[in-house]
Specification:
With 126 residues, the chain is an alpha/beta fold. The chain has six helices and four strands. It has a four-stranded mixed sheet, covered by helices on one side.
Length: 126
């Protein structure tokens, strides 16, 4: 990749993640083969893959889809299962298929809880 060969390599922001949406912003689906190819490129450059699934229910239910949640678990380092944009009132999740993706994530969540702005807003609403 170009940043690896740049003379200013030590001073550049180093990429560490590829972000995609399933379906993407135009409603197009990534196929299992495309995700596998992306996984291969990311693996060779020590990059992680995050799949934003705000509309994942639509992707999973699409007639042309060949990607399952099991496939996402194998090919992505993290993915989001959204519900709000698909009509649910709650039930969204951030999935880390491998427990070591974010070291100490469970402990961080326990220490931090929810976002303080969200917490303050919920106190005002009561």
């Amino acid at each position: 990749m170009f940043w690896e060969k740049d003379g200013n390599h030590d001073h550049m922001v180093q990429p560490s993640l590829v972000y995609i949406s399933q379906p993407n912003e135009y409603g197009l689906l990534y196929s299992k083969a495309e995700l596998a190819a992306l996984r291969g490129v990311c693996g060779s450059h020590d990059l992680r893959i995050y799949v934003d699934g705000a509309r994942l229910a639509y992707a999973l239910g699409a007639p042309d889809n060949d990607v399952s949640l099991k496939d996402l678990s194998r090919l992505a380092d993290a993915f989001y299962i959204g519900g709000t944009k698909c009509g649910t009132l709650f039930g969204e999740a951030l999935a880390f298929p491998r427990h070591d993706t974010v070291p100490h994530f469970f402990t961080i969540v326990k220490q931090r809880g929810c976002d303080s702005r969200q917490e303050a807003a919920s106190r005002r609403a009561v």
